[in-house]
Amino acid sequence: MSAPRKRWLLAPAFLLACLWGCARHSGGGAATGRIVVNYWEKWSGFEADSMRAVIDDFNRSQNRIEVRFLSVSGVDTKLLLATSSGHPPDIAGLWSENIPDFSEKGALTPLDGGLAKAGIGGDRYIPLFWDLCRHRGFTWGLPTTPGCVALFYNKKLFRAAGLDPERPPRTFAEFEDMSRRLTLVEIEREGRRVRVSFESLTPAERAGRKYSLVQVGHLPQDAGMFLSGWGAWFGARFFDGDRKILANDPGNIAAYEWMQGMSETYGVENLRGFIEGFGVSQSAQTPFLGGAEAMVVQGPWMPNFISKFAPSLEWGAAACPAADGVGGGAPVTLAQCDVVVIPHGAEHPREAFEFLCYLQRQDVSEKLAKSQQKFTALRDVSPGFLVDHPNPAIRLFMDLSRSAGARVVPRLPIWHEYDAELAVARERVLNLRATPTEALAEVQERVGWKFDRVMRRWDAVGVERISEWRAYDAW
Amino acid sequence: MTPGERRRSLVGLAFVSPWLVGFLVFACYPVCASVYFSFCDYDVLSRPVWVGLLNYQDMLSDGVFWQSVRNTLVFNLMALPLGLVSALVLALLLNQPVRMKGTFRAIYYLPSLVPAVAGAMVWLWILNGRLGLLNQGLEAIGFSNPPQWLVDPAWTKPSLALVSLWGCGNTVVIYLAALQGVPQSLIEASMIDGASAWRRLIHVTLPAISPVIYFNLLIGIIGGLQVFTSAFIMMGGAGPERSVLFYAIYIYQNAFEYRHMGYASAMAWMLCMLILVLTLLASRVSRRFVHYQGD
If you count Cβ atoms within 10 Å of the first and of the last residue's Cβ in chain A, which end, N or C, has fewer? Predict the structure, then answer.
């Protein structure tokens, strides 16, 4: 064969090799001959390490399935793209707030048939978390580790402010009062820069706002990861459960008015300047971990971050007080849940489901929860779970998740967008650029418009979707 | 075509086929598909549903869309003239016959070699209102209340315009090359005529390099309307009160965060049209100001 002809043949061969490299490799057989189940999870760091340990246990117990774990940043977006291309992983770790959106878009596998065969039902779980795994009458995922939020406080700062470090606020009025007492400012007096309590400022000094904040009781921005605002503690309803967005619910307006009050009290620039001196969340640069914020709303993961970034921080935790009358006397919290799902089109749904069921075993679930310093979504707790649990506040979080005042963020397919709009409204309100009523009216209009579009689409495809889900039977 | 020529052509095509396939699959197809998607309700997962001009109509009534247009235009009105003038001034200075000219040129070019993300992270700290170098410097020279660059919605766009100067080294190099191509005979003739340095700059140098200024303007318009990285890294996307929600960021949010791929595709095509219109406008205006040799 001539040299040019050989070259001519080599080029397409190279191209084919490239294309083959991009192609789906079916079978997924491990070197051991076991079926490989690919698992993408959002967790990194200690949370990923905990799950890896559980997976190692599972793989050791198996001669048929091998779970392969991959920590993936931006897992929700990447999962959707992988699913749309027809090459999703077999399992994905998401947040429960993803379920309405992903399920309606047809990205998830309904688990109900498998759950019925495996004898797994809602009665095993704390109702709140089981409900978070369901949407439109189907179950789309199973809980891994749930979370809810409470008030973490710095005992040293309490002591320094003359407060009892063992007595966190119990009412909203106490919370506000303590917050003021815990606020320190630097101000120029008689030519010297002095650090004094906000409470000790004269009316003229307060009105002039010629000071800088060096320590705050709490920040209006810190409402605990799940929600951009304090609406939950003011009894706000965000959604009527059917077709109406309720962004400008009176409870939410009250929450935003309260947040705006902080800007009016301390000054927009003072608050902004204080926050800007700190860095990103989940780092040593947050005001709370840096010892400059006395109280913060956070979840059970917080002790992990404290021990990592601020090991000398002397902390306590309690239910975050709600506004008068909210929760009917029961402690109020906001709950969410990490879930594992089987994406639509997964190559090995049955094997993936077997691993999901393994994660629901009480011993496994408790091992995972303990190593992440969290609790489980299961209704029952083994006697030893609390005995050597590394999180001293774990009982508080377990009680909060079972409280009649526990709430979840609205289960809406557009919650991500809704919360982003609430965050913009919060900024405008805190910067005194709009009244709460105006800012939330805009959210109402905008999210309402978007939700109408989503509902129109659902009206068009809903019947077809539901019949597909009912017909699914890979179990 | 003889059999030999045909064979050689085929061999050539076979060798460029990886690029051809890459271009067709990863550039040509997505561009064509985005035209179709822009007329669809498409969330990436479900099949696209034809909605006609709805996405384009939605843009008209979407307040945030218009905010992103405003933000992008205002930013460009700040950053583009600032960048063009600063780069030109730097190039004029670096074109002077001074010692260590090469070293100075290297120093001014170096920042454009820093990756955009790394540069943004550095500027994040320089512009920090409380701890940043810039504000500490401003306070040291008597500004008692310097701007909160990154958290005050009124200052976020100017601060990003300032950051955009960081990478002007490339433009400086292009200007430098043009300045060295200005005919020495013209300069000498104007000197003989008694023209001052300023007049030589205005009446000789600038007209001589006007095609390069025009080129930089066009590149600046095209790049400026697609500004993304600095705002995305430094402001987490939209910035306080969406003050730096630029057009490209809003496209990204719709496509990949909210999964309104149809709407994002429509926005992308509108951006393409906007760039085209502004480029044509610049082209029309340039006829009066740009002088090509031999005209």
Answer: N
Beta carbons of A80 and B45 less than 8 Å apart: yes
B5 in any annotated domain: no
Q: Which positions in chain A touch B121 (Cβ < 8 Å)? A: none
Place of tokens 């579009």: A453
A411 touching chain B per CB within 8 A: no
**Is the complex ipTM higher than 0.85?**
no
Order of strands, sheet of A295-298, starting from the edge strand that comes earlier in the sequence:
A295-298, A150-154, A315-318
A372 and A296 assigned to the same domain: no
Q: How many other CB atoms are there within 10 angstroms of residue A64's CB atom?
A: 9
Please give the DSSP secondary-structure letter assigned to residue A319: P
CA distance B165 to chain A (A): 23
Per-residue pLDDT tens for B211-222?
999 999 999 999
Residue B51 falls in which region: left (phi positive, over 0), alpha (psi -120 to 50) or beta: alpha
Q: CA quadruple A200, A202, A207, A210: dihedral positive or negative?
A: negative
Same domain (yes/no): A155, A117: no
pTM here? 0.87
Q: Can you point out the beta strands (E) in A326-391?
A: 332-341
pLDDT for A339 beyond 50: yes
Structural domain that includes position B188: 62-113+168-289
Query: Can you read off the two tokens belonging to residue B87?
Result: 């780069």
Q: What whole-number distance in Å separates Cα of residue A400 and Cα of residue A407?
A: 10
